[in-house]
UniProtKB/TrEMBL annotation:
Gene3D superfamilies for this protein: 3.40.50.2300, GPCR, family 3, nine cysteines domain
Source species of the chain: Oreochromis niloticus (Nile tilapia)
Major localization listed first in the record, in broad terms: membrane
Gene of this entry: LOC100706264
Name under which the protein is recorded: G-protein coupled receptor family C group 6 member A
Family affiliation: Belongs to the G-protein coupled receptor 3 family.
Length: 865
């Protein structure tokens, strides 16, 4: 008994010590289960040190809003008691003022915990039952301190506003729970909003402390992932009387004004800091018209503006994230019905003081300070406790068998409770992921309306849902045009390049090179165009490449084809003339059948020219050189036969003549020369046939052309023809002085010269010319060669056949030949005079030998015929 008494005395002394600290009013109501409410009804304390070293703590900055919050708890408890939701059990409360400061909160907590342990010693029977559970505190920092102390007795603590992520750590804070989500989610939500509006260069202001540091860190974490950078981060010291406070506010103002490209500022600062910031910042015109993104800590604090007499339009736009709002209707009715006589609230000194001060205006003043989120989360906390108690007391009489805190904690973690027809429960971190509301401040008559909800943010889906189309447009019209970027965006056609020494959000734009594109703003890189597409530099699209080739409609090609057709027609005409005068000496002397073959091959060569025009295809590519090569070889070998024949006819040395006669096998010669070319061409086609190729021209067209890949083969083909032509030329050159009727040789020489000159010119031109007119060069050269042969070989003969019929007789030929023979062997003078005077009549054979050889020649003509 003695011991017992002495303990009671000790307790009395202790409790006197604590409660003599005059900061502390309280509110209490009896009940079977007592819930403590810890509210920062005063936002701060002023600590002065007395002469003896002890501290004098004076509360400061009374907050009507927090008083209202304590009343929300009272109302919720009273409702449960009234409705007898727990049967005969009643809930009591003890509301204490944490003064927004850790030490005060700890002193308060310790006071009732002492009483708790005392009760357990069965000391003061008259005192109320022990506190089983705590609702509060609003601030994370206080909650962290208090929950550690409460955990000594396993007393669970349910906060309605402490959102710091540290508190989710259940190994450190096992007794802590909350009816709000932790701030990592808020950081994520804000980062998503920034990302959605393309704000990549933003400022951050925060109040130092668990809340500010943690949410700033989380925002940075989520924002960095989305490529958002902080232009500045200002951390303001928490203590109100700190000397450095004004300085840090000043430097924050400076940061905001200096960073002109930052038009969006995210603030995690406490309301009183925002009051200071706006008070100074709005004096500068550059500080106005910004977008302020408020976190839950001040997003519903209209006093931020009203206390400075600033209008919302001065600030710019304030919108923000709030904790999920509750329905305030019921609580407003409670305040309406509030008994405004202070004497009736002797057990709630906070309220009675307020009533004394505001009189009949009280309930209006209180109603102004209702934060809808507090209605939701405080009511939810009360409901959670009620549910846990109900769960525990279904099978036992809690009136006599008192509950223990640890039991209650377990029950709370498992409880499923209901509000507005929705069920909630704590997750394994003791958090309640109810989501956020996005609000936009609206200017009203006296103070801004801070309950204008635009959208909901669902933590589960990590997505924003607007309440209606109108709210979405309302927000869009406020902030849709706001840009907050370090540097101008890169237009499509450019890509971002980082600048060394600058954060990633400050970059330069570099144009995309040719044949690359970027089609988004702020593209990270330029993409290459697909095949057959092209783009100029700084392009946002690729264009299909146009193909280019020598088109049928091309004027050059039309001219060339006209010449080709003309040539072909002339060849046919010549052929007809020859056939019509088949047995005349002129035709016979030019070896009729060989001439026809020659005409045919010329015809084919002319045709092959057509293959050089138009859109290339692989057959055409392969055919054109081959057809040309073979037909022209045939052409030249026919001419070769003719030149051989002429030389043979006028070779007067019998020995050589007999040798030549043996060698002179026209069709064999033609066949052998053709065979050589066939071998070359076949080798070419087998080894590496020409194929279609393309290249990009300077005007970004895709030029289609035939690639005669194996140039040596092409060369060999031409050289082979050239060799044959050289033989013709050599042989014909030898016979260039033969009689007029046989001036074939002269003309062959001439035709071959034309051929050589044109092909010699062709070489360098062909090598140097690129583009679609390359085939035209070859066409021209082929046409020149063909026309050369056609004119030289046939036109004079046609002239004789058609216009000088008298010369086209055997007699005239003989005469001519005799003249030549005499000219060759006898007196030059006589022959020349004879020829000049009358080439057809004067026949004077001087040498029998010569005459014989002429006969021989003529007979050999017949052989060929
Ligand atoms: C504490 O300080 C306040 C003023 O700050 C003063 O009125 C009060 O008397 C002081 N109390 C003690 C115990 O010193
Ligand atoms: C309430 O208490 C009364 C008497 O104390 C008792 O008769 C009654 O059964 C109790 N009701 C419940 C629901 O416990
Ligand atoms: C803050 O700025 C104001 C002017 O804007 C100046 O008067 C004051 O001295 C500054 N305070 C500090 C601590 O720098
Ligand atoms: C709030 O609850 C009241 C009834 O208590 C209801 O009439 C009202 O529509 C609710 N308000 C909202 C916004 O849900
Ligand atoms: C205040 O509390 C005391 C004892 O706890 C009680 O007797 C009294 O009725 C209460 N006053 C009011 C107004 O509720
Ligand atoms: C109540 O409000 C009116 C005007 O709103 C004011 O004139 C009056 O002084 C207020 N009364 C008290 C007790 O504050
Ligand atoms: C936003 O920009 C659009 C077009 O760019 C313009 O029509 C609209 O008026 C602007 N809104 C604001 C609030 O500046
Ligand atoms: C702000 O933006 C403008 C234009 O985008 C740019 O020229 C300027 O360098 C930026 N200022 C800073 C401090 O980055
Ligand atoms: C950009 O180009 C890609 C294909 O290259 C295409 O899929 C995409 O739709 C384009 N985007 C825009 C905005 O044009
Ligand atoms: C882009 O191309 C144009 C002409 O094609 C040229 O004048 C210009 O210098 C190029 N720009 C860049 C950045 O390469």
């Amino acid at each position: 008994m003695k011991c017992f008494f002495s303990f009671c005395i000790l307790f009395a002394v202790l409790s006197h010590l604590f409660f003599s600290v005059k900061c502390f009013n309280q509110a209490k109501a009896k009940g079977d289960i007592v819930i403590e409410g810890l509210f920062p009804i005063h936002e701060s304390v002023i600590v002065t040190v007395n002469d003896d070293g002890s501290e004098n703590r004076t509360r400061d900055r009374f907050s009507t809003a927090r008083l209202v919050q304590s009343l929300i708890m009272v109302q919720a408890l009273e409702e449960i008691n009234q409705k007898r939701e727990l049967g005969n059990l009643t809930l009591g409360y003890l509301i204490l003022d944490s003064c927004g400061e850790v030490t005060t909160a700890l002193i308060q907590t310790q006071a009732f915990m002492m009483r708790n342990s005392n009760n357990r010693q069965d000391c003061a029977q008259q005192s109320s039952p022990p506190v089983l559970v705590v609702i509060g505190d609003y601030y994370s920092e206080l909650s962290i301190g208090v929950t550690g102390q409460l955990h000594l007795e396993y007393i669970p603590e349910i906060s309605y506003g402490a959102t710091s992520g540290f508190l989710s750590d259940k190994t450190r804070f096992p007794s802590f729970m909350r009816t709000v989500p932790q701030d990592d989610h808020q950081g994520h939500a804000i980062a998503q909003i920034l990302d959605h509006y393309g704000w990549t260069w933003v400022g951050v202001v925060a109040t130092d402390g668990e809340y500010g540091r943690y949410i700033t860190e989380r925002l940075r974490h989520h924002a960095t992932k989305k490529g958002i950078c902080f232009a500045f981060t200002s951390v303001l010291p928490d203590a109100l009387n700190d000397d450095s406070r004004e300085e840090s506010i000043n430097s924050t103002i400076k940061s905001i004004i200096d960073n002109r490209n930052v038009s969006v500022i995210i603030s995690f600062a406490k309301a009183y800091h925002m009051i200071d910031i706006f008070g100074k910042l709005l004096k500068y015109p550059q500080g106005r018209g910004k977008v302020w993104l408020a976190s839950d800590i001040w997003s519903q604090s209209p006093e931020v503006l009203s206390s400075q007499n600033y209008k919302l339009s001065d600030v710019g736009t304030i919108f923000g994230v709030t904790l999920k709002s509750g329905n305030t209707t019921k609580f407003e009715r409670y305040l309406d019905d509030l008994d405004e006589n202070p004497n009736h609230h002797e057990n709630n000194t906070f309220l009675s003081n307020f009533l004394k001060e505001h009189g009949t205006n009280s309930s209006e003043e209180l109603k102004k300070m209702i934060y809808p989120y507090a209605v939701f989360s405080i009511e939810l906390a009360v409901k959670a406790i009620a549910q846990a108690v109900k769960d525990l007391c279904t099978n036992r009489d809690c009136k006599t068998q008192s509950l223990r805190p640890l039991e209650l904690r377990r029950a709370l973690r498992k409880a499923t409770f209901h509000m507005e027809e929705k069920s909630y429960s704590f997750d394994h971190h003791g958090d309640l992921n109810s989501g956020y509301d996005i609000i936009l401040w609206k200017q009203t008559q006296d103070s801004p309306d801070v309950n204008n909800i635009l959208a909901y943010y669902s933590i589960e889906h990590q997505s924003l849902t607007f309440t209606s189309q109108e709210t979405q447009q309302a927000l869009q019209s406020h902030i849709g045009n706001v840009t907050s970027k370090c540097t101008d965006s890169c237009r499509p056609g450019y890509r971002k390049t980082s600048v060394t020494g600058q954060p990633g959000c400050c970059y330069q734009c570099e144009p995309c090179a040719e044949n690359q594109y970027s089609n988004t703003t702020d593209s990270e890189k330029c993409h290459p165009c697909k095949e057959n597409y092209y783009s100029k530099n700084t392009s946002s699209v690729c264009l299909p490449r146009k193909t280019d080739f020598l088109k049928w409609g091309d004027v050059y090609l039309i001219v060339l084809l006209s010449f080709t057709s003309l040539g072909a027609v002339l060849t046919i005409v010549v052929g007809i003339i020859f056939l019509a005068h088949w047995n005349t000496p002129v035709v016979r002397s030019s070896v009729g059948p060989i001439s026809i073959i020659l005409l045919l091959s010329l015809m084919i060569t002319f045709t092959s020219v057509i293959l050089f025009g138009g859109p290339p295809n692989s057959y055409q590519c392969q055919a054109r050189q081959v057809v040309f090569g073979l037909s022209f070889t045939l052409c030249v070998s026919c001419i070769m036969v003719k030149s051989f024949k002429i030389v043979l006819a006028f070779e007067f040395d019998p020995v050589i003549q007999s040798i030549l006669k043996k060698l002179y096998k026209p069709y064999l010669i033609v066949t052998v020369s053709m065979a050589g070319q066939v071998v070359i061409v076949t080798t070419w086609l087998v080894l590496s046939p020409p194929y279609i190729d393309s290249e990009i021209t300077q005007d970004n067209m895709e030029l289609m052309f035939c690639n005669e890949k194996l140039i040596p083969a092409f060369g060999a083909m031409l050289v082979y023809i050239g060799l044959l032509a050289l033989i013709c030329f050599g042989v014909a050159f030898k016979g260039r002085k033969l009689p007029d009727s046989y001036n074939d040789a002269k003309f062959i020489t001439f035709a071959m010269l034309i051929y050589f000159i044109s092909w010699i010119m062709f070489g360098p031109v062909y090598v140097n010319v690129t583009g679609k007119y390359l085939p035209a060069v070859e066409m021209v050269v082929i046409l020149i060669s063909c026309y050369g042969i056609l004119f030289c070989q046939f036109f004079t003969k046609c002239y004789i056949i058609l216009c000088k019929k008298e010369a086209n007789t055997e007699k005239a030929f003989r005469c001519n030949i005799r003249n030549y023979s005499m000219d060759h062997k006898g007196s030059e003078d006589e022959v020349s005079s004879n020829r000049v005077e009358n080439p057809n009549l004067s026949v004077s054979v001087k040498s029998q030998d010569n005459w014989n050889s002429v006969k021989l020649s003529l007979s050999s003509l017949k052989v060929i015929k």
